């Protein structure tokens, strides 16, 4: 879902990325990630999930670095590392 080239230290303690792998900047509609409003815990957030199985991946916030300005805050349990091809 995410490339290590898009990883950055957000200071949050969570693995953070500024872009979904295969996305075109801020548009991740052609990727394996879906966005859904999450208004639980009295806060407005956008949940990110796997488009194929619906698994919760984390949340996306609009306080990330350039070039997208997004911060995908990902649960480490949902990460799987693979060598790039």
TrEMBL record:
Belongs to the MsrB Met sulfoxide reductase family. One of its GO terms (biological process) is response to oxidative stress. Keywords: Oxidoreductase. This is Peptide-methionine (R)-S-oxide reductase. GO terms for cellular component: cytoplasm. The keyword Oxidoreductase applies. It comes from the Eukaryota.
